Amino acid sequence: MLGAVFLIPLFPFVGFLVLAALGRKLGNPRAGWLATAMVLASFVTTVIVFTGLFERSPASRSYTQTWYSWFTVDRLHVTASLLVDPLSMTMALFVTGVSTLIHLYSIGYMSHDEQFPKFFVYLNLFVVSMLILVLGGNFLLTFLGWEGVGVCSYFLISFWFDRPSAASAGKKAMIFNRIGDAGFLLAMFLIFERTGSLQYTTVFSRLGHVGTPSLTAIALLLFLGAAGKSAQLPLYPWLADAMEGPTPVSALIHAATMVTAGVYLMCRVAPILHLAPDAAHVVAIVGVATAFLGATIACAQNDIKKILAYSTISQLGYMFLAVGVGAYVAAIFLMLTHAFYKALLFLGAGSVIHAMGDEQDTKRFGALARLMPITSITFLIAWLSIGGVPPFSGFWSKGDVLENAYAMSPLLYVVGALTAVLTAYYLGRCYLLTFRGKQRWAEARRDGKGAGLHPHDPSWLMTLPLVVLAAASTVAGIINLPIHPFDLLQRWLDPVVGAQLRQLHFSVGTEWVFAIGDAVLAALGVSIAIGLWRRVAEHPALEPVFLRRAWYIDWAYDSFVARGSTEVAQVTFDDVETKGIDGAVNGFGGLVAAAGRRLRTVQTGYVRNYALGLMGGLVLILAYVVVRAFA
Q1: Neighbours of 543 (CB within 10 A)
Q2: pLDDT-based confidence at residue 312 (cuts at 50, 70, 90)
Q3: Residue-number span of the structural domain to which 583 is assigned
Q4: Which of 168, 196, 421, 491 is the one with CA 20 to 30 A from 272?
Q5: Domain boundary among 523, 548, 573
Q6: Are 360 and 486 part of one and the same domain?
Q7: R_g of the chain computed on alpha carbons
Q8: Which strand (E) or helix (H) includes residue 65?
Q9: Alpha-carbon gap, residue 586 to 458, rounded angstroms
Q10: 405 with 514: CB under 8 angstroms?
């Protein structure tokens, strides 16, 4: 069964090729159904391979499928190979599973779009790239998938490129990710220089011969790449603007692909982080700072997709906090549960936007629960789950992160706990403004179309994924309960990260204190949200300008980096390029031309002049010879 692993990326790749060639002929909805069927086939194959790996003993749960020798340059030999182990299969399962639901949802959501087939071409290619990233057996193949998801994100964020904001957002995502990718490239150069290989198994077996300074540099450079892909400080602003793409794209990027790539990479290189504790501390600090920053910004946003975007930035910070404190299983656990409830939140937001005539301002919604009951209930479940309310999945996964954070530093725990309260609060604010309170859309729409709206739940194509994701968000916590033998995920991932895990030594009583504390934090955030936003839609004091403007960080980048570098480039072009370099080149050319004009005067065209010059030259030569002879 393990030999079938090549089919996992192959199915969506075939879908991509067929749709690229015949998508327009297939049209709507057949192109969407084909793309969805290919990803579903990939999910089924992943389940089969997962089952084959599960049947093996823990010590032998690693299998490498080598296709061919990719290239050899001196000492560098790279193979095209896939690595099947508990970590890669866990990632492949939720990538293909959640992507299948998003594809199905997209058939209904994009049904009226003129570029329907092209949209699914990009979606299939996105899934292929993510699967290559998580299944690649070496750093270079992972980087190939890494770049693939970056390119696909550009295609999809800029899908409605006739909108200047969408085109700009796509370019912004590309630029920020290229900054991070430079770190990944430099890390690979250093890895090969120190270990002589890029194959994961070979590199990890040779880490004992690599000095701590080099390991620290490698870990920090890889984290730079992860910070770009997974939107961490200081490279996070692109993710908020990525909302310009269609809502299913937002769900795919935030839940199943791309932004989870950075967390996966840092978990994959756990052996390196384990030997570079200073780098791990940096990861933890940046992670918790990003979590808090994203949560505070989300508290003051009105655009429903922007709220969810900053929520993703915050939750990714939690995952990096877990990675930095050595809680790799907790990071993967949170990534899994986050995939379910964040996909649910975005798809629920898409249903609302769809029903409200493309309106995204939560202040112009209200009282939609009665008119859209399925969307309302599933969105409520997602809120309670991400807010950490027991027994929903987020309670278990987020609590696991906070517990490990406390074991490393109480300060990390305090910031993480405060962020947990804010998370329950801002998602509650989003839910209440959207589904509860007074109906506001009729009088709030500036275009005058509000009175003609008749919001309702969408077709089954869009509601079925909501129901499935709501169920997963509710029960997914059972995969890693903090009680043996229900700690299934920890025992499953133990062969990959077990040796690097932080070992906790809390008593049973202390564990209960943490659990009760997590529930109190969630209840506090939920209660504050209900108390403040149940009936009203305005609390100006809670929405200060600096939070609505995202702490002015993006403005600072634009003012001092983007515009500043543009001015420097203009000055460089005018003075250095035009006057300096071009002036020197053109001046030399002018000098040659002037010399040519002067020399041209000796070319008279008369034979007697040339003969006279020839005789004069002979006389000079003879004179020189005579002088030398008598000297």
Answers
A1: 15
A2: very high
A3: 559-630
A4: 491
A5: 548
A6: yes
A7: 31
A8: strand 63-73
A9: 67
A10: no
pLDDT single digits (tens) 498-548: 888 888 888 889 999 999 999 999 999 999 999 999 988 889 999 999 999
Q: pLDDT band at residue 570, thresholds of 50, 70 and 90?
A: confident
Q: Which two tokens stand for residue 522?
A: 């969630």
| Alpha-carbon distance values, 434 to 3, 308, 361, 367, 373 (Å) | 48, 13, 9, 7, 12
Domain annotation covers residue 254: no
Q: Does residue 438 lie in a domain region? A: yes
Query: Which of 98, 123, 130, 156 is CA-nearest to residue 35?
Result: 123
Query: Exposed (0-12), middle (13-18) or buried (19+): which is 461, by Cβ within 10 Å?
Result: middle
Instruction: State which of 515, 548, 581 marks the end of a domain.
Output: 548
Question: Does residue 563 share a domain with residue 529?
Answer: no
Q: Is residue 32 part of a domain?
A: no
CB 307 within 8 A of CB 431: no
Taking the whole predicted model, whether its pTM rises above 0.70 is answered as: yes
Based on the domain organization, do 439 and 484 belong to the same domain? yes
343 and 313 in a common domain? yes
CB atoms within 10 A of CB 59: 7
What single-letter DSSP state applies at residue 158?
T
DSSP 119-140: HHHHHHHHHHHHHHHHHBSBHH
Q: Is residue 261 part of a domain?
A: no
* Spatial separation of the C-alpha atoms in residues 528 and 67, rounded to whole Å: 56
CB 339 within 8 Å of CB 94: yes
Q: How far is CA 484 from CA 387, 395, 489, 491, in A?
A: 25, 18, 11, 10
Candidates 260, 247, 275, 175; CA nearest to 562 is 175
Residues 447, 565 within the same domain: no
The string of pLDDT tens digits covering residues 589-621 is 889 888 888 887 777 778 877 788 888 888 888
Secondary structure of 267-293 in the HEC alphabet?
HHCHHHHHCCHHHHHHHHHHHHHHHHH
- State which H helix or E strand residue 103 sits in: helix 86-109
CB distance 123 to 95 below 8 Å: no
Give the separation between CA 232 and CA 538, rounded to whole angstroms: 30
Q: Are residues 336 and 406 in the same domain?
A: yes
> What is the pLDDT, as a whole number, of residue 443?
66
Which amino acid is it at 379? Answer: F
Q: Kindly state the helix (H) or strand (E) to which residue 83 belongs, with its residue range.
A: strand 76-84
Give whole-number Cα distances, 273 to 214, 282, 450, 497, in Å: 12, 11, 54, 11
Mean pLDDT of the chain: 92
Same domain, 450 and 572: no
Amino acid type, 578: T
480 Cβ contact list (under 8 Å, min separation 6): 329, 333, 396, 397, 400, 486, 487, 488, 489, 490
User: 583 and 441: one domain?
Assistant: no
Question: Is the pLDDT confidence value at 224 over 70?
Answer: yes
The string of pLDDT tens digits covering residues 480-500 is: 988 877 889 999 999 999 888
Peptide bond into 9 cis (omega under 30): no
Q: Coil, helix or strand for 210? A: coil
DSSP conformation class of 506: -
